[in-house]
Design brief:
The protein is elongated, with a radius of gyration of 32 Å. A hairpin with a 3-residue loop joins strand 44 and strand 45 (about 775-780). It is mainly beta. The chain starts with 10 loop residues before the first helix and ends with a strand.
């Protein structure tokens, strides 16, 4: 029987479709975290990049800006936490692995506020391992002896007597890892061998057999203990299913026994295919047949996971099976790597000609020694995005199934899904408890400011590093205002001024409440596989692993390094902007009284409207009469990339000159079209400059401490090791980490690393490109 998907045809179908639609009505986000290592040494930093996706489209989620990251111990206590800022669905940060971490396993989580609305595990969770040399723990290899745990999982969920069944096998050790190459023999109650199997590298296998009533079936394993496991008795009545992949079609075989067929022969069953958002269905009937086959074209399947469910006539789910369709996932690969030695550094250039640098893209790259044992992530960006959110269990080395994909891996992935049972989309929850929006998407911080004895209805929120100037005007009688989208960084304060009746900015008296105010606890169960505890490590306890001597000279070079960094920043500003760039020094900030006086020295005519003493008009010199002061004759003026109203430049009269960083003056207005014909002035401020080497005499605003701010994205500094030639560094050391790599105009990814004199290095690359493509690679490169 060939099935063709269609829309609902009867009321029962409508109920199923409508219920599923309601459950998927709220959009979902998923997160993937690329960590620079999975095993870290005390004194190193954990570098990470978090990628956010729309769960259904698999495109970058640009709705959320707030990303929470935590590290917990095994008891669930949060030891470290960060709020990081996402741009175009990508956020990054680093966490120091300091003295609070003893040797052992910890849990890294990355999530958004919106993810807390759902039962599914849409957030990112991963175990990391910490080595603290001061613990003096026994570092010797642990013994290989372990007990095994075997599970036998009938395909679809039920073992039915007197018909052929497919049974999946999972054999794991004490740590939850699969036991490879283990032979199992199935026997009946008379010790007659019925079939046998051998587990693959992850302890997975399957076999077929026909169970009979009043028989006891056992599986004997060829392990050291000769473990014997008794299978559960099959059901006397029911339906069994079996899936076979026929390259361009799926064959779904449904079987029932003689005692069941008379009661279901005329019943209409619904076979559905879903992916968490969409659902397709077709009807099937047994009639007089105890075995029926449904053929489904691959073209009718969803890219990625397909949840196959059989419902009875009352919409009760009976059987379920997961199937994965690879076709439709866009995998990109980088090309050749070029390495050039330069003094004590290596300049690395990776060709990436197939990445469009005009589209959203980002690559995160971990650089480790060739023999590293510290990068053992079970997932990559593809497996965690397309597979993990839909399964309940823990998956060992899931990235294996999505790297160098071939027929063998496709078959092994299908055997894995056979053993996963029912999906993470629980039908009881779908029918009875659809998610409710209790937590919002977060795009920065929100403030609710109440006026306390404050006169005036015009307010100015001063600019911050990532937030432009915000002006607002209250209606008569309004005693509070709400502002969203603030992006304060750590160390920044919020400053708000009120404009009085004389258009002067004064200090208001506000009571300000923030949301959020703290990093939330992410509760609920999750599935994440630890790392094997039998990977021992050894080092010389008399010799430190990290070289701390660099700290002794840090203060001597600080002034020089800071000055050089400032000089490089200013040169970059001048190189990438049109027009004249005027960079302010501390002396200029102290001696410049106001912006009007400053801009008048740069060839602009500045005057006031005689009808309004508080007005400010800026024009190019060729505009000589007051009658020529319309907005079309004034230059465009930007403050921190926010265009100021051309009709009203008076705000510049109260500009705090102590915060002025630099000004770009382009009298030709290139790049602005006709509206820039009278020139362009771009003003950039930095509130942190107020505290440098001088005092601010005028308090033109209320400064408010921010309870929760975004962590600054800092350059990752690899630690200095006492030696780069030891086995310990080769196994557990780190060379560098790059959280945000992009492709230049020539199609290359370029970065520089320290030359540790290791002959070969490994690059672990994860990322997104071309608005829908995924990159996950390991590259081995020669440093010479």
């Amino acid at each position: 029987m060939c099935a063709f998907f269609g829309s609902a045809q009867i009321n029962d179908d409508a109920y199923l479709f409508n219920t599923y639609q309601d459950y998927g009505k709220l959009p979902r986000e998923t997160a993937y975290g690329h960590l620079n290592k999975s095993t870290l040494i005390n004194g190193e930093s954990l570098g990470f990049t978090v990628y956010l996706f729309d769960k259904y489209t698999k495109r970058s989620s640009i709705v959320t800006r707030n990303v929470y990251c935590t590290i917990e111990n095994s008891a669930g206590k949060i030891l470290k936490k960060k709020l990081i800022l996402a741009t175009n669905g990508v956020a990054s940060g680093s966490i120091e692995i300091d003295s609070v971490f003893a040797s052992g396993n910890y849990i890294f989580k990355a999530f958004t506020n919106w993810m807390k609305n759902f039962e599914e595990q849409n957030f990112y969770v991963q175990h990391i391992k910490v080595i603290n040399p001061e613990d003096n723990n026994n570092n010797e290899e642990e013994e290989d002896y372990f007990d095994i745990e075997a599970q036998f999982l009938p395909e679809g969920g039920h073992l039915v007597l007197d018909i052929k069944n497919t049974v999946g096998v999972v054999v794991k050790d004490d740590y939850g890892f699969g036991v490879p190459n283990l032979r199992g023999t199935l026997t009946d109650g008379y010790d007659l061998e019925l079939t046998n199997f051998i587990t693959n590298a992850f302890g997975i296998a399957k076999f077929e057999f026909t169970p009979k009533s009043r028989r006891i079936y056992k599986v004997e394993f060829d392990d050291e203990e000769e473990t014997v496991v008794t299978l559960d008795s099959g059901k006397a009545r029911g339906i069994a299913m079996s899936l076979k992949d026929l390259d361009n079609k799926l064959a779904l075989v449904f079987r029932t026994n003689a005692s069941t067929l008379p009661t279901i022969a005329n019943q209409t069953f619904k076979l559905t295919f879903s992916n968490g958002n969409q659902l397709n269905a077709t009807d099937i009937k047994f009639g007089d047949n105890s075995e029926i086959t449904t053929l489904i074209s691959h073209d009718d399947l969803f890219t990625g996971i397909n949840i196959i469910t059989l419902f009875d006539a009352t919409n009760q789910p009976m059987l379920e099976r997961l199937y994965f369709k690879h076709n439709g996932i866009s995998h990109l690969k980088t090309q050749a790597v070029n390495v050039i030695a330069s003094k004590d550094s290596l300049e690395i250039s990776i060709a990436a000609k197939n990445i469009n640098n005009q589209e959203i893209h980002n690559l995160s790259i971990s650089v480790l020694p060739e023999g590293t044992k510290s990068y053992n992530h079970h997932h990559n960006i593809v497996s965690y995005t397309f597979l993990k959110p839909y399964v309940k269990g823990r998956i060992e080395n899931a990235k294996y199934y999505f790297t160098a994909i071939n027929k063998k891996k496709i078959l092994e992935l299908d055997n894995l899904l056979l053993t996963q049972g029912w999906s993470s989309y629980d039908w009881t929850t779908i029918f009875n408890n659809p998610p409710v929006k209790r937590f919002e998407f977060e795009d920065g911080l929100t403030i609710n400011a109440s006026l306390n004895n404050t006169k005036g209805n015009k307010f100015v929120i001063y600019p911050q590093q990532n937030t432009p100037t915000i002006t607002l005007e209250l209606k008569d009688g309004q005693r509070n205002f709400i502002t969203k989208g603030l992006l304060p960084m750590e160390g920044e304060t919020l400053k708000i001024g009120v404009v009085d009746k004389n258009d002067r900015v004064e200090r208001p008296n506000l009571y300000v409440q923030f949301s959020p105010t703290e990093i939330p606890q992410l509760s609920g169960a999750f599935a994440s596989l630890k790392y094997s505890n039998n990977s021992g490590y050894s080092f010389n306890s008399d010799r430190p692993i990290l070289d701390e001597s660099w700290k002794n000279i840090q203060e001597l070079d600080e002034v020089v390094l800071t000055a050089k960094k400032e000089e490089e920043r200013f040169e970059k500003i001048k190189r990438f902007n049109k027009g004249r760039v005027d960079v302010f020094t501390d002396s200029q900030r102290k001696n410049t009284t106001d912006f009007a006086s400053y801009i008048a020295t740069k060839g602009f005519r500045v005057f006031q409207d005689p009808r309004d003493p508080r007005s400010l008009i800026i024009q190019l010199p060729r505009r000589t009469t007051f009658q020529d002061n319309s907005s079309q004759m004034r230059p465009l003026i930007y403050l921190n990339n926010l265009l100021i109203d051309q009709e009203d430049h008076r705000f510049l009269m109260d500009l705090d000159m102590s915060t002025l960083d630099y000004v770009i003056i382009d009298k030709q207005g290139l790049g602005e079209g006709m509206r820039g014909a009278n020139g362009v002035i771009k003003i950039f401020t930095n509130s942190e400059l107020r505290t440098r080497e001088y005092n601010i005499t005028r308090d033109a605003g209320q400064e408010i401490k921010v309870p929760l701010a975004f962590s600054a994205r800092k350059k990752f500094y690899a630690p200095t090791y006492s030696s780069y030639s030891t086995d310990f560094f080769e196994n557990y050391g780190v060379i560098d980490w790059f959280s945000h790599c992009t492709v230049d105009k020539d199609g290359y990814i370029k970065f520089k690393i320290k030359d540790t004199k290791n002959k070969q290095l490994k690059l672990f690359i994860e990322g997104i490109a071309n608005d829908g493509s995924f990159i996950s690679e390991e590259k081995l490169i020669n440093s010479n």
